[in-house]
Specification:
ten-stranded antiparallel β-sheet, alpha+beta, globular
Length: 324
C-alpha cells in the first residue's frame, strides 16, 4: 500500500508509492503516446468503476489511485519521522464523452453540469470523517503534467490539508485578525476599483489576474458572495460559473493558442473531523478557482526559491484576456 510521509522541516506531506518505479519507467513514460493504447476514458475503453453520472459527465475511480478509501489511517512515528497510510479518495471526472473535444467547447450548460458534479462528489466524500481536505483540479497538456488528453478533472480527498492550502488559510486568518475583513473580499473590491486587472465580471463572479501572479496569464475566479466553502454554492451561482469558466477557458485558448494549463479549486477544509479548529473560516476565508496557463517550465531559480518571474505583467495579461 502507498503511504504518506511528512517533511519535518516545512510540514509538507508527500505520497510514496508502494511499488517503486525502476529508472527505465520514467523514460518509457516520456515516450508514451495516446496511440500506444486505447484511451481508458473514452466510451468502450477499459472497464472503470463508475461512481456517479450526470448527463454526459461520468465519475470513475482512478485505475491508479494515490489514495485508497478502505482501511485506517495508522498514523505512526518512525524515529523522528511521521507517516500514515494513504487513505482517501482518488476519482476521475470524465468531463466530455468525446476524446478530442474540450469541455469549454461543449458550451456553458455542459460546463455547469461538470461544476454541479464536482459539488455533488465533494458533498458525498465529505461525509467521511477521515477526510481533511477535498481538492478538485484539472491539468491539460504535457507542460501541465497531463498524461491523457481526454478532457477530465480529478478529485483527490486526503486525510491531511496540503501545505499550499494551509499557508493560504493561515494567511487569510492573519489578515482577518488584523483588519477584521476577508482578504479575498478586499482583493475583489480593490480589483474592481482599479479595473486594470479585471478580465470579466458577472452578477455572481469576478475574474482577474492577481496583482502578484506566479505565472504569466494566471487568473482567479472569485464569487462576489462571501462564503468559505464551494459546497455552499447556489444553483444560480453554478449557472453563472458555468458561463464564466466556458468563456474564460475559451478566451485563454484563443489568446495563447491552446496552451497547457491547470486549474485548482481552493475551498475550506472538510470541517467534520475538527469542527472547532477552523472556527473562523466562515469569516476569514473565501473559496475561489485559480487557473494557471503553463507556458514556460519553471527555472531552477524559481523552483528552488519560490521567487517567480513574470514575462507578461498581470495588467497586460488581463488586457489580452479581456479582448479575447
Amino acid at each position: 500500500m502507498h503511504e504518506l510521509r511528512k517533511d519535518p522541516l516545512i510540514g509538507r506531506w508527500v505520497a510514496v508509492l508502494g511499488d517503486s518505479w525502476e529508472p527505465g519507467a520514467y523514460e518509457s513514460l516520456k515516450r508514451r503516446t495516446e496511440e500506444a493504447a486505447p484511451c481508458p476514458l473514452c466510451p468502450g475503453g477499459d472497464s472503470l468503476e463508475e461512481v456517479a453520472s450526470l448527463g454526459a459527465v461520468r465519475v470513475v475511480r482512478s485505475p491508479a489511485p494515490v489514495l485508497f478509501p478502505h482501511g485506517d489511517l495508522g498514523r505512526r512515528g518512525v524515529g523522528m519521522y511521521d507517516r500514515m497510510n494513504s487513505i482517501g479518495v482518488t476519482e476521475i471526472v470524465i468531463e466530455s464523452p468525446e476524446h478530442d473535444r474540450q469541455t469549454e467547447d461543449l458550451g456553458s450548460e455542459h460546463m455547469r453540469t461538470v461544476i454541479h458534479m464536482h459539488r455533488e462528489r465533494m458533498m458525498a466524500i465529505g461525509e467521511d470523517e477521515r477526510i481533511r481536505y477535498i481538492l478538485v483540479s484539472k491539468s491539460v497538456g504535457v507542460l501541465a503534467g497531463s498524461v491523457n488528453s481526454h478532457p477530465h478533472s480529478q478529485i483527490l480527498a486526503a486525510p491531511v490539508i496540503p501545505l499550499r492550502i494551509k499557508t493560504e488559510l493561515d494567511g487569510a486568518k492573519e489578515y482577518y485578525s488584523y483588519k477584521d475583513r476577508c482578504i479575498f473580499c478586499d482583493m475583489r473590491d480593490e480589483e474592481a476599483r482599479s479595473g486594470e486587472r479585471v478580465i470579466l465580471e458577472t452578477e455572481h463572479f469576478m475574474a482577474f489576474c492577481p496583482y502578484a501572479s506566479k505565472f504569466p496569464f494566471e487568473f482567479w475566479v472569485i464569487p462576489k458572495r462571501h462564503t468559505c466553502a464551494f459546497r455552499d454554492i447556489t444553483g444560480q451561482e453554478v449557472a453563472d460559473l458555468g458561463g464564466v469558466m466556458a468563456t474564460l477557458l475559451g478566451r485563454m485558448k484563443t489568446v495563447l493558442q491552446g496552451p497547457s494549463y491547470s486549474y485548482v479549486l481552493h475551498t475550506a477544509p472538510n470541517r467534520i473531523p475538527r469542527r472547532n479548529h477552523w472556527h473562523t473560516l466562515g469569516e476569514d476565508y473565501h473559496w475561489h478557482i485559480e487557473v494557471a496557463p503553463r507556458l514556460l517550465r519553471a527555472s531552477g531559480f524559481e523552483w528552488g526559491s519560490g521567487f517567480y518571474v513574470l514575462n507578461t505583467s498581470p495588467e497586460d495579461a488581463a488586457g489580452y484576456l479581456r479582448e479575447g
